[in-house]
Amino acid sequence: MIKQALVIIALSIGLGALRQLAPRGIHWMGSWPDASMPAEQAYKLMAKPGDPGFISLQETISAHSQKKALILDARESELFKEGHIPGARNLPYYEYEAKAANVLGDVPADTPIIIYCEGVTCESSFFLGRDMQKTGYTSVRIFYGGFPEWQKAGLPLEKSEKIN
Amino acid sequence: MKKWLFIILRLTLGAIILGSSIYKIVTPADFAHSVFNYQILPGWIINPVAIILPWVQFLCGGALIINRGTKGGAILILLMIITFQIAVASALIRGLNVACGCFEAGGSPATWIIFGRDSLILALAALVVWFQNRR
User: A66 to chain B, minimum CA–CA distance in Å?
Assistant: First the structure.
């Protein structure tokens, strides 16, 4: 039994190595963000061509204080309730189709939109941003430092009992 | 009777596991993103896992279907499903809304429903291993 298992694993390593020679192979050594990485550097690792652009903490603060952008929180409702950027609306990325009409019904397609989630190890803001671009939103950016960067800077937070 | 039951269980499990390996083999980058999003493994090991694991699934599923190396394949499947269950549960407990990455890229998020479904597959795998070692 163990011998068979070892043979399967050895074969898998070989097939995996061969697979890397075919189209869409990936490198053995990947570059993935970790929590200690600056947000913009992490953003560049995760962004694909055509993705929403990056927005820094400072720019987010300024857009937020001047009410120049709609801020969307792509995290789970539970995390949103516990604390979020004041005035942000909650739209978990995987509920986009179900909730977009409700959350974004009053939002014109050219509204500046800033999306965030749980920081540089979280990809939800990318998923939501891509879906929004596909739907026709033209000014979407990703605050990739996200909730952790906002919280760490000691900026005000808001809690919600109810969502939106 | 029992023999037939075992054959059906073995083929079903083999088909599920082989089927779930296909998208991971076709688009390893998507699978690597799924692995990353669980935020369990350190960065350096994400790509090797995304490259090798789908083939382990493919070969184990195949082994069960053609009934060669079945004992080794079944025990590996059992271990993999237990690992996946731990990953899904830990993501849910941490409040991560990660895509499951189970059968398709992105796809449905990991939820307790997914956890329940995988528990059924886990039970199936446990049955196959048990039958196997009784023979």
Answer: 30
